[in-house]
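Predicting holo structure, iron/sulfur cluster bound.
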Amino acid sequence: MLKENLVLIGNGMAGVRTLEELLKLAPDQYNITVFGEEPYGNYNRIMLSPVLASEKTIEQIMLNDEQWYVDNGITLHKGKKVEQINRARREVIATDGTVAKYDRLIIATGSLPFMLPLPGADKQGVIGFRDIKDVDAMLDAARRYKKAVVIGGGLLGLEAANGLIKQGMEVSVVHLLDTLMERQLDKPAALMLQKSLEERGMRFLMEHSTAEILGGERVTGLRFKNGSEVKADLVVMAVGIKPNIELGKSAGLHCERGIVVSDTMQTITDPKIYAIGECVQHRGIAYGLVAPLFEQAKVAANHLAKHGIARYQGTVTSTKLKVTGIELFSAGDFIGNDTTEDIVFKDAASGTYKKIVLQDNQIKGAVLYGDTVDGSWYFQLMKDGTDISAFRDTLLFGQAHLGDSGHNPETRVASLPDDAEICGCNGVCKGDIVKAITEKKLFTLDDVRAHTKASASCGSCTGLVESLLAHTVGGDYSKTPTSKPLCKCTDYTHDQVRGGILQHGLKTMQAVRDHFEWTTPDGCPSCRNSLNYYLLCAWPTEYVDDAQSRYINERAHGNIQKDGTYSVVPRMFGGMCTSDQLRAIADVADKFQVPTMKVTGGQRIDMFGIKKEQLPAMWKDLSAAGFVSGHAYGKAMRTVKTCVGSEWCRFGTQDSTGLGVKLEELTWGSWMPHKFKLAVSGCPRNCAEATIKDFGVVCVDSGYELHIGGNGGIKVRVTDLLSKVETEEQVLEYCGAFCQLYREDAHYLERTAPWVERVGLDKIKQALEDTANRKVLHERFLISQQPAQIDPWKQRAEGAEANEFTPILIEA
Amino acid sequence: MSKWIEVVELNKIPVLGSRLIKTREMDIAVFRGSDDQVYAIRDACPHKNGPLSQGIMHGTSVTCPLHNWKIDLTSGQALGPDEGCTNVFAVKVEAGKVYLNLD
Ligand SMILES: Cc1cc2nc3c(=O)[nH]c(=O)nc-3n(C[C@H](O)[C@H](O)[C@H](O)COP(=O)(O)OP(=O)(O)OC[C@H]3O[C@@H](n4cnc5c(N)ncnc54)[C@H](O)[C@@H]3O)c2cc1C
Ligand code: HEM
Ligand code: SF4
Ligand code: SF4
Ligand code: FES
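Done. Tokens:
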């Protein structure tokens, strides 16, 4: 097939990020050509501030050198500005006459510093702060001149001023208003910032409005509207940016403040043309920070790769000031209004200020000054809309004060010594992580994991590592991409592989491995198990389960213990039992000399210490007494825990045990992406602890509350309310449909709790509240249950898989 | 003189799976690869004696069911970053039968 041509205009952060994302998804789909006005490869623009402050060199901030373009077969026209897009002929033309044809085009021309149209603004020594050229001009001025003025006391202006002071210049900052960084800070924080910058020698001309730039060929000073003057050999204008839309406009694309794009990042005028980055206006907003641009990049790449599933829906942004020694964080609506409340902490002596704005117990915005360790935590709570009433009292003290976070109160990432252990699982210290981030130029949590192993195991230190990452590279780190390759044998993600299985009717593991070009002949333990499950889920009545692609527990239908023996847990529906059943279990225990018995957390009876070769005989006896496998060993539906409910309990509102039994009859035997537990409580006292289960039912007078996504493991998560229904039939239908949605959508080994957090409760609610869809899901669940509810114990007691359980004895 | 003992028919070992062989002295796991190559290894992981016969086989190695160490079936060596070694034994297949040599 002939490859299509993709042209990128603008060799900056957003554009090249799009190419990187695209190469990950579809490395061979396009012939790619890049035009960049700047004469370099691609560099990390936000790190220009540390370069100016001599904390970094240009080499250190290069993201993709020219070799990268060569390695990826990309034609780079550096130092060439595109001056025309001919949409009719689908070609772009650069100032030097170079022409490139496109099938699809990406415009990522970024933005331009906004230069105030003052008299004298065209003099030598008046510059913006945008690219390497500007930094060179500032460094050059610092060597030859003394006095600098920065117009604009915002983020960019202060970073410029700080850098120039570091270069030995006398710097004054001119600001129109009476407080600095008014878009990011409230007054108290702004005053604290101003004070500490003054201590570093920065001078401020607040509430000054420039009237004219003085001088001959080169600037010598400024005159203000109030008549006063100040001397200056260098003037840096940092009063804002304007999206660079010239080219887009001249090509006839609809532009307002920026080039207007849809949720797929295509221009609304011409779907062959994508626009991305600071030159873009999406749902009315033109962004000026990298985090949103990186999200846009991901969406555009997804679309270019013809996956066509991603949508960009806007980004909530947060800011940090990259001035070494000054800690400052702000996000959201930090001013508040009549309907909001503030929680404020101020300690002028230690230079700490924190303000959190709340509305209906949710965080709407935050300003932190001096101590910003918890910035990313607040930001997460804000984006998630978490109800903080439970820990409102200690909110200001940060995440470390939450009892269950597992980190002690001293954990303050920024102030930790280098040898402080961050990742307890892999013994990785702060110093190692910071070093890896700076030396290897890591941006994402995944990169840090791969290079240092930090947070690669249990993940409970993920928050700390993210804080470190954010702290080390500024606002410019990307959150873990949600789409990781399924395993090391392939570049495709879980979702892509699952999609492919259905779309191309792949029905064996070999077919999947061939189709997706696996790099290993028979896969690895991680993909073998995943594929076996995905195929079983996709083709429940056709696919033949591969025992060798299951964990030993599922192959032997028991839980392997540390001495290699197994445990046996017969199913007791809803936790209910009869004296006959208990007697039968006791008889089996005696006959097989079970050394230990225990009642499990899921209201079942566990018999430990069984040798593998005894299992089939034991199952035979249990089977004869009417028991089936309890699946206590599987990535499968485990148990339905119940409380006594209305039959006996004086508080009970519904028959919780009866419903529990019905739920278990519906769901037992089902193979799932991970273990799956249910519970039914007879009233809101919730004795069956239904709100930490994958699917929990809490009975109330008027019906049943359905809760999902709970977890009682290493990391406790309380369920989200899915819906409230009136009849048992509805509970059963919702339950089946929810199980099937989870089975079909979650990644293998992803429990419902992280799954719900990944895909979002809304999506799950939507899928299940749509009656027709719910019925279809439930129907599919019932079909998958037909083969699944053939008792594996009974089959094996009758001789199936005998080899698995029979050792070979030899006389030697 | 080496002594070959017939242990099992090849087709009684699942592909990419194993059978457990009990001798008087020890347990041995016999694995069968996707190419019908056969490997014999002491059924004790160098880590904490986990039963390797119960693990998942891939390529020419097996992942221990207890703590996921990967053991090379040809040498008995644990694969990096872990370190350790368990015994391997000579095996051969003739006319569909697997023979083991314990010398
Ligand atoms: C000093 C500084 C500090 C910053 N600090 C932060 C921070 O801490 N956190 C944060 O999130 N963001 C920060 N930013 C903002 C961030 O750098 C930008 O949001 C980001 O770089 C925008 O990416 P982009 O690809 O849209 O534009 P750019 O990175 O500007 O890329 C656009 C490229 O297109 C080229 N170009 C333009 N027109 C043409 C044409 N016609 N033909 C060919 N090439 C063309 C330009 O030369 C440029 O190289 C900072 C910015 C600056 C300048
Ligand atoms: C207002 C608070 C509570 C009241 C009034 C209450 C009352 C009861 C009653 C009456 C029973 C039934 C006893 C029986 O006959 O078996 C019961 C059982 C139980 N309660 Fe509570 N309870 C309360 C809170 C809790 C909480 C908070 C938990 C756990 C987190 C809990 C856990 C249990 C458990 C596990 C059972 C046994 C259920 C079973 O297996 O049948 N209870 N409770
Ligand atoms: S949840 Fe309610 S109905 Fe069930 S045992 Fe507890 S108090 Fe009784
Ligand atoms: S809590 Fe730990 S020790 Fe106890 S059963 Fe679970 S894994 Fe084993
Ligand atoms: S016993 Fe094999 S990995 Fe621990």
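The longest strand of chain A covers residues 352-359.
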